[in-house]
Amino acid sequence: MPRRIASLAAAAVLALATAGCGDDDPVRLTDLQASQGSVASASPSVPPPAPSPSAPAEALDAKAVVDALKAAGLPLTAIAEQDENTDPNDKLGRPGGYTSRASADVPGGAKNGDKYSIDRGLVVEVFATVEDADARSKYIQDTLKQMQVLGTEYHYRAADKRILVRLTGKVKPSQAKKFEAAVTTL
């Protein structure tokens, strides 16, 4: 039995070593198994699985989400993508934080609010996991409920639940519904 295992192992190594040599009659493992007296039959080559039709398209980053909302006709100005130097929350690229962040001014937002802040209108944050996005949204909403002086926010989620679209609560509800509708198409 050990001799048979050693022979099969040697045959496998030989097959792998000669696989890329360009020989017109390559050595096949099934040929080597047959020469060793193996009764194993070769199974036909199985093609790789086709991509699932339900697999999500390439993930959007925050700037692409804001650009898509602008293309949908929403009134966004002063669109900016944040980096680690301009992120007002210092969460970009950090554990549990977002992987990308972008912001824009929206009518109804505070024109004199801090640059890149939710006060000016819109913030989009994209996370590595759905759980991180859920935790961020819950943290913000819980904080705003406990400290109502801070105001309110609308939170919308795209089909890719890793995307959190935040809209200042100062925006009129009729305008917020337009944002909600646009986010659902992402």
Can you characterise this structure?
By secondary structure, this protein is α+β, with helices and mostly antiparallel strands. The chain has helices at 2-18, 29-35, 62-71, 130-146, 173-184, and strands spanning 77-82, 98-105, 121-127, 153-157, 163-168. It has two domains: 2-35, no CATH class; 62-184, no CATH class. The chain has a five-stranded antiparallel sheet with strand order 1-2-3-5-4, sandwiched between helices. Mean pLDDT is 78; it is low at 1-44 and 46-57.
- Span between termini: 60 Å
Count of helical stretches: 5
Mean pLDDT: 78
The strand order across the widest sheet is 1-2-3-5-4
Judged by helices, strands and strand pairing, the structural class is: alpha+beta
| Helix-residue proportion | 25-40%
In the predicted model, the low-confidence regions spanning at least 5 consecutive residues are: 1-44, 46-57
Radius of gyration: 28 Å
**Total number of strands:** 5
Provide the domain count.
2
Q: Tell me about the biggest sheet?
A: 5 strands, antiparallel
* Order of helix and strand elements from N to C terminus: HHHEEEHEEH
Strand fraction equals 15-25%
Q: Choose one word for the global shape.
A: globular
Protein name: Lipoprotein
Keywords: Signal
